[in-house]
Each structure stands twice: as structure tokens, then as C-alpha cells.
Amino acid sequence: MKTKLMTGILAVVFLLSNVENSNACTNFLITAGASVDGSTMITYAADSHTLYGELYYQPAMDHPQGAMREIYEWDTGKYLGKIPQPRHTYSVVGNMNEFQLAIGETTYGGRSELSSQSGAIMDYGSLIYVTLQRAKTAREAIEVMAGLVENYGYYSSGESFSISDPEEVWILELIGKGEGEKGAVWVALRVPDGYISGHANQARITTFPKNDPENCLYAEDVISFAREKGWYEGSDDDFSFSDVYAPVDFGGARFCEARVWAGFNKVAQGMKKYTDYAKGIIEHAGPNNFASNRMPLWIKPDKKLSVQDVMGMMRDHFEGTELDMTQDIGAGPFELPYRWRGLTWEVDSVEYCNERAISTQQTGFSFVTQSRNWLPDPIGGILWFGVDDTYSTCYAPMYCGITEIPECFAVGNGDLLTYSETSAFWTFNQVTNFAYLRYNDMIKDMQEVQKELEDKFVSYVPVIDKAAEALYNSGEQGKARDFISQYSVNEANSMTARWKELGQYLLVKYIDGNVKREKDGTFERTETGMPRSPHFNGYPEWWYRVIVEKTGEHLKVIGESH
Fold first, then answer.
1. Signal sequence span per UniProt (predicted)?
2. 3-class DSSP state of 540
3. pTM of the full predicted structure?
4. Could you read off the pLDDT of 244-280 as tens digits, one per residue?
5. What is the DSSP string of 130-182?
6. Which helix (H) or strand (E) holds 510?
């Protein structure tokens, strides 16, 4: 859903792109008490048909007195204005800074009359990256974000933000005040320890405590502003941020909340009762006629989650549910869980929809962050980074203290209109786009390599942690950063090379709709060295029956066939 930024010495340069903002991006938030090792985690999938997957790096910098930072709208590259620089800004790798602070987002839009604010400077993307350069903790990040929109105005529509540090995880929901006003109204809630949360392009915070600053922060006028506009007349206790500023409708439930439901469903029982809601069936009740069958903002998983469990939450096409994208006729004979856009379509003036799953073909990049309070900050934070579709990507560990970006993820190594042999984005897309031809077979081969690589990364990380920590604690902080940089760079580039080999293997194995014969991992040959005749697997029986139902006797064999 994004076009990302890189910093020059005093300015931020944005990549230009027309970006699809609706129904894009998915976040999950994992507290320390809900994780196996005590780390906090957030996830993010940046989904756009015009986004090129890259890893952005902003080094720590000192700035002279009076230095200004230029702000460009993240989605379009439009120049918005300038804001003063602090004397020092922190290094940022992707969406995580050197203090293990991580921020993700999803756009929910909200009330259309609040979507523009003349003279505003801070759009949602710039808000994230400016904050990562200025804040060390989640609470400080909320304070910085609130201050930025108050001082410089808010340029975008409604946003949900995931904010984590090594101790806490927060969800912040914010929307501008529209024309004639300045700034935004917002609410931030700390996710209770031991619980997980999520959001996917639909505002999710409803009621919130008004006198619990340890767990809830909010704009002073978040309720009074709604009263002034005539949008709410009830008591403060009954005020629901989402229901007032971004009411859920069919699309908000079916295309957005359904993704949160699917992720929760992978790690906790009891989500079946929200199936109707995920399907877009919304019930209303109470004096304010708010949606009454919504999912909880957070749940407790059945067991503590590992980083690979959380990666698994990001890999979903509603398998095993009523919305399973592999099971309806649209999946075709090879159970392809993707539908080419648009998201809705019409037949005989009746509107229908495609499902919008967590895993989708147009993902530019995605990540899972880990913030670990038992390690020095540059080593404790890991951005597990991948490009293309979450279901078939590989997440490589990028330590937050690295000072170099792998060539395969580097900005400028190709773009969406320029192919690059060394780009991870193009390498992974080559494999997935070929796999769409015979998906249910090829995805199994892809998942074997995916597991092989991610298992290796996960097993190596504790060893790298220990070595880097020893260097860091001995006073060799520079060498520690060089060490984790070299590790991250080598593993990402090696992963991309391995994926290129996988693509070559799949081409050989599945060319022309056939399947080559294998034995002990080697393609089989005859005694004379010729390739053995491949399997002609054809189509499943149910697909042939569909063809017969649609074509009648058009394809029927008459008489003998030789």
C-alpha cells in the first residue's frame, strides 16, 4: 500500500507511485506475555499493485541548529512542507529503529468529511518515519505522533497504527479533523500482556477507559469534537471511537475485519462465533445503533506464540473456513487462492465480491518485528523481512542495528517497471507467478524451501545474538554492528540466490503442464540417458465434470478415438 522513503542529508526523497489505498495492509500485535521467548512482535503486509518491495535505511544523523526536514506525501511524492529537525535523529531499518521501536499501519479511511485538511504537512507515512527517527519507546512514539499532527496538521485519512518496543505494544487509531480544523483526534490502547491484537483497514477501537493513563491515552477532544459535529449524543462511557468516526459496513467486515478473524482463528479457539460478522453480516443494537456483533479488540492465544507462529498468522487464504479461497470454482482446477482484481464485480447488475485474504498477490513487502528486552538494543531488535506474497515469501532476519542493506533488498536495485537479476522482489515474483499455473503442486515444493531457510534462520539467530552481544558488552559496539550487518546481508542475498535456484527447478519440473519424474531428489533418466516420460497429471475429476456441464456434448468423443 506504500511507496517508501529514503533520506538524503537534509531531505527525504520519496519514490513516486499511484497507490491503491483501499483494503490494503494487515497488522497483528503480539505482547511479551503472549510470545514463547518474551519478545514483543508486530506484523505488517504492505499490499499494493504498484509497490516495489525494498528495505529502506535511514542512518543516525546529527543536524545543525535550524535544520529543516522536507515532507513529501508517502503515497504520491507530493511536497507538503517543512518541519524543524531535532539535533539528532536515530537510525531506522525498514519500520524499526535502533532502539527496537517498531511501527506499522493500516488505512481505514473513516468519515469522508475528515479526509482532507488544507495546509496540513504530516501524512500518515511521514508520521511513521519521522517518529521512528525521534522516539525510543512506544509511549514516546505516541506523544511524538500526537505532537506532530497537532503542530503541523494531519494530511491523510483515518489510520490504525501498531507500535511496539521491548516492553509494550500499543494500538493507536487516529483521524483528521477535516477542513477548517487542524490536527487529529485519536485513541491509543495498550494491548494487555498475554494478549494479541490486530487490524486490517477497519478502525477497531470502540469504548475505552477515560482515567487509566497506564493503558489508555487519547486526544482531549476526541469525544467533544464528535459532539460538536453532531455525530454523538450519548454518555462519555458509551462513546465508541470506531462506531462514531469509522462505522463498520459490509466491506469493512468482509474485506477487512475478516483478515483479523482469520489470523485470530489460527491461534485461538472460539472464533467461529464471529463467522457471520467476518462474512459481512452486521448486527446493530443499543441507543446509538452501533454494530453489536463485532470481534474483541484483543484475544488470548491458546498457547504462547513463536516468531514462526506469527509468520504463520500472516500466511492465510481462509483455509478451513467458509471463506476458503481454495475451494470455490474461482480457484480453478489447481486450487489457486488468488482472484485478479477488481475486488468487486457485477453480473446482470448484481454486485459480487472476491475474498480479500491476508495473503494476497500484490504485496510489495511484509515483515514480523521482534523486540527483545534481554539484549542490547541494536541486537535485540530483528525485522524479519520478506517481499511479495506473505504465503510464499521467506522472512530473512534484519537486525535493527545493521548499517548496510543487502543488495537483494536495496533501494534502486530495479523497480516495478525495471527488472533486476539481483532483486529479491523480482526473484520471488518470478517463482510465484509461474506457480499460479499449477499452484497446489508447486506451492508444496516452495514451502519445503521456505521452511528449510526459515528454520535455518531461526536456529542461527541465538548463536549470532550471543556472539554480537559479547562484542557489544566488551566495548566493541562498532564491531558488533558490523558483525550483525554482515550476517543479515549474507543471509538475505543467499536466500535470494536459493530462491532463484528454486525457480529454475520448478521450471524444469513443471514445464508445459507436465510433471517430471523424480527419485531421491533427482530427475529420472532412461538407461540411455534420455529424460523419462513425465507424468501427464491433467485435471481433477471434478473439473472435468464442470467442463461437461458447461459444454454438453461439444467435446464428446464420437466413435473410436486413436
1. 1-24
2. coil
3. 0.94
4. 999 999 999 999 999 999 999 999 999 999 999 999 9
5. HHHTT-SSHHHHHHHHHHHHHHH-B-S-EEEEEEE-SS-EEEEEEEE--TT--
6. helix 477-510
